[in-house]
Design goal:
about 200 residues; alpha+beta; Jelly Rolls; 2 domains; six-stranded antiparallel beta sheet; four-stranded antiparallel beta sheet; 10 strands
């Protein structure tokens, strides 16, 4: 049985995408250990909300939500998207909190980090994208199938679709769209595509 400890902090804070929430709820219905852990984290979060002193549960919550550890359940999807090993995906995700690793993107509030992807992604554009809350990545055409994995936050596409943390948005070659980070949330994504006209 696969436990869901890595998802519990986000579950307690209400940050999970609907699919992840369903997975956690289904698991908690059958696993006493994870139910107990979830209760301890919820109690710690309640204590903070009421202004009480931090507890062991809060320390656990803060640790689980800090640094690269907050992406642990997304390491495998990132590795697959970029054709990297799990260790290389972790090293990549460890870079996202350092502003020095980001370049200004194509619009205000949009930043990019180029990714050296594996051989299966040769010839494609592989990048991490960071959008400030409410920032829009401009309308663009896809020169190859575009895959965007949301790592934090979420966005609303110009087609009306919303994609949240853990969601994979796949767009066919030749299609186009813009997308906007949801209000109040920085949106962090991993993306693979090609410029229009590329032979990829």
């Amino acid at each position: 049985m696969s436990h869901v400890e890595e998802l519990l902090p986000d579950a307690v804070l209400g940050l999970l995408a609907p699919a992840e929430r369903e997975r956690v709820d289904a698991h908690l219905a059958t696993c006493e250990a994870c139910r107990q852990a979830a209760t301890e984290l919820a109690d710690a979060a309640d204590a903070v909300a009421l202004g009480f002193a931090p507890s062991n549960g809060l320390a656990q919550l803060e640790q689980a939500l800090s640094g690269v550890k907050r992406f642990e359940h997304l390491v495998e999807p990132v590795a697959k998207l970029f054709d990297l090993s799990a260790d290389a995906a972790r090293e990549l995700l460890a870079k996202v909190d350092d502003d020095a690793n980001w370049l200004e993107g194509p619009a205000p509030g949009v930043r990019l980090m180029s990714v050296e992807a594996g051989p299966a992604r040769a010839g494609l554009i592989a990048a991490l994208l960071r959008l400030d809350a409410g920032a829009t990545f401009p309308d663009h055409e896809h020169g190859a199938e575009e895959q965007v994995l949301v790592l934090e936050g979420g966005y609303r596409c110009s087609t009306g679709v919303e994609v949240w943390r853990g969601g994979l948005d796949v767009r066919a070659r030749g299609t186009s769209h813009a997308f906007t980070a949801l209000e109040g949330l920085t949106c962090l994504c991993a993306s693979v595509t090609a410029f229009p006209g590329d032979d990829a």
